[in-house]
Structure formats: structure tokens, C-alpha cells
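Researcher: I need the complex structure. Ligand is nicotinamide-adenine-dinucleotide. Inputs:
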Amino acid sequence: MKLCMIGTGYVGLVSGACFADLGNDVICIDRDVNKINNLKKGIIPIYEPGLEELVKKNYKNGSLKFSTNISESVRKSDIIFICVGTPTKKNTTGADLTQVYKVAKEIRKSILKFKIIITKSTVPVTTGDEIEQIILQKIAKNFFSVVSNPEFLREGEAIRDFTYPDRIVIGTNDKKSNKILKNLYSPLISKGAKYINTSRRAAELIKYASNAFLATKITFINEIANLCEKIDVNAEDISIGMGLDTRIGSRFLRTGPAYGGSCFPKDTKAIITTADKFKTNLSVIKSVIKSNENRSTLLLKRVFQILKNKIKNKKICFLGVTFKANTDDMRDSSCLSMIPKLIKKGAKINYYDPTGEKKELTNLKNVFFSKDIKSAINSTDLIIIHTEWNNFKSINFKKDVGNNKFIIFDMRNIYSSTKMKEQKIKYFGIGR
Ligand code: NAD
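Model: Output:
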């Protein structure tokens, strides 16, 4: 099938490359000329395991193309996926749909025959209705169908998630579109993915409700971990004990820093705004947001306690600064609220991240990037393990830090407290 992905970011590029690999003709569009030129040269704009190989392979064999020309690409395609960003609107909590509506207006200029227009971007309930109205202003009803097909991939595991999804959700009442999309996804359905056809509004809400639920699960175990710290219980035992109940499940039930990333923080806020619009109080999600916002403050307080409130001139090293491992995404990473508060108190921050230096941290005074773990932790006072990368799991701290007074605060519990004790290393985890 002939597909066009509008917005070549984490979602558009991954899904575009995967659709191409399944044998479709795909054009990935972006307004960012630099990004598109780089992609044509094989330079991948994001860190995502396996993506570079997939893009290069399919670009080389011609099934994946890159372009900045939206009208030409829409004309050539049968199915158009809108994959642009839906960030939080400035000074509000709702989703900013400017990019989505702008794209809808662009698309309507190039509809000469029947097109399926899909929102893969996460959009609030009724956005599909709005897009339909925008296009109807210029194009007759029988020339297009607006469908919701939310994306559930996770950064860091995006290709696997796209290729082996738990479910494919298609929100449309249009039988013709549903048939075409079932066919498009048939290679994934035959590998075990469940295919759900529902209403457009339901599909839009499934995405928000899923993200809000996962954010709730993380926040829930984080609060249980707070209690564990007070009663000498290991929160990991609680996670295992709870997670083995198949009604609960073990995923997203590990304690750590506040949840972050490009989805949970904005989507939990946006669903509240939608509910407010329809005069519904989502009180559980409201308290999840509040608890998560408090979490970075709480962990920062712990850092102060660990350093006995003597922060001035202390060398603090962050291992990992992205919101989770296997991604270079800094959006809403909890370290972005912690680091400025530490430097304000006079700390000097060194950080190492496997995905390199971060533009979000370059302009901060007394924040330095180290090219490897060894130089990052050298002669530091406190090491904060912020992200769970595999290469942080077997560090010889005693040898590499080079002083005897360093402390480790492991926000991901990747080391054993007992082993640290045996090595006489001052070590703190979470929920232990
Ligand atoms: P992103 O910021 O990485 O990519 C969006 C891209 O759209 C950018 O490259 C931008 O230049 C491009 N763009 C914006 N306006 C454009 C226009 N008018 N024409 C052409 N290109 C344009 O965003 P993302 O992380 O891929 O997220 C996209 C959507 O998917 C969001 O709604 C997000 O909530 C949702 N989503 C994201 C993830 C994730 O893990 N990142 C997972 C599921 C769903």
C-alpha cells in the first residue's frame, strides 16, 4: 500500500520504517529540512535501537522515501498518517493541537481521490471530529475518511513494540476504511496482535486512558516504596508479590524517579482537561499528577539528607539523564527539575549519558558532560544512578572513583545493598 507519514519523529519514523519493512511504499514527511536531508544521507535523528539498520535497508531498496513536500506526498498516497507532536499547550494543561490542525489543512489541498487520514498522534477525544470538519470545508465526504489509530510503542523498544503490538486499535465506523486497515496490519495480526475496531472517539480515549493507567501504576508503587523506606521493607519484594497476580501484572510496577518522557506527563494532564470540558472529575489521575510532581522534590530531599545538607561545592555525578534507558529523549526527564536545584545550592554536576551531551544542560553553569563513565565518576562525592542503562550495571566504583568517601544513590535499585555493604560502599537505594 502507498503510505505517507506526516511528522518524522519517534512515532512517524519508527512506524514509517516498520511499514516499509512490511512491504509497503512509504514516504516520511517532515517540515524540518535538515532532518529530511540527514535521513537521506543515513543520519538518524533519534537514538532508537535497531532503527538505523531498518531505515537504511528500506531507503536503499526504495520502499522508504523522505520528503518535505507534503502535497506531492499526499497525492501519491492512499493512507495518510498524522504523526506530529501534541505537546501541552502553553500556560494550560490541555493538548496543543496546532500542528495537527495545520497538517489537516495541508492535506485537504491535495485530496483528488479517496484517502484514509489517520491520527497516530495522541489526540484528545473529538479531535477526529474536528479534523473531519476542517477537511469537509473543502472536500466532499465520499473522498476521505478520518480514522483514529493511536500508537502504543515505547521509546527504547519501539521497533519490537510496533512489530509485535499487544493490540491494534482502529477507530472508525467506515467499513471500507476498516477493511483496508485490517489488510494493512494483517502481517502483525497474523503474528498474534489483537485487532480492535471501535468508534473514533473510543480509540482516542483508549490511548489516553492507557497512558493514565500506566502512570498510575508507576505512581502507586512509588508511594508504596515511600512507606517501605519507613518500615524496613524492600519495595522490590512488594512489586514481585503483587506483580505475580495476573490481575495486576509486574510491568510498570518498579519504583524509581518520577515518571517523565514525552507522553505520560502531557497525556495525564490532557485527559483531565478533556474530562473538565465534559464536566467529569478524574480525581484519581489528578492525584497521580500531583504525587508525581512531588516525587522529584522528595528524592531531592533525600539527596540533601544523604549529603547531610552540605551541598555547596559537592561534586555530584548523574549517570544517565534521559527519562529512561535506550532513548535520547530528555522531554520531562526528572533530572531536569533536580539538577538546577542542586546547582542553586552550590553543587557541581558531572553527568554521563550513553546518548551523549544534552542541549538542555549545556547552558547550565557548573554542569559538565563527561565522555565516559570513568571520567564522570572520578573523584565525585555522590553518584546518582538516574537511568537504568545496562552499562551502569557493572561499574567498579572503588577503582574508578578514586576516593574512599563517595556515596551512591541508586534511583533504579540496580545494585544489591548487601554487596555494596560488603565492599564498604555507602549506598542508598529506593524503597529499601
Ligand atoms: P516528535 O516531536 O519526535 O516528532 C514530531 C515531528 O513532526 C517532528 O519531527 C516535527 O518536525 C514534525 N512536524 C511538526 N509539524 C509538522 C508539519 N506541519 N509538517 C511536517 N512535519 C511536521 O514527536 P513524537 O514523539 O514522534 O510524537 C508524535 C505523536 O505521537 C505525539 O502526539 C505523541 O504523544 C504520540 N506518541 C508518542 C510516542 C513516543 O514514545 N514518542 C508514543 C506513542 C504516541
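Model: Summary of the prediction. Residues 200-231 form the longest helix (32 residues).
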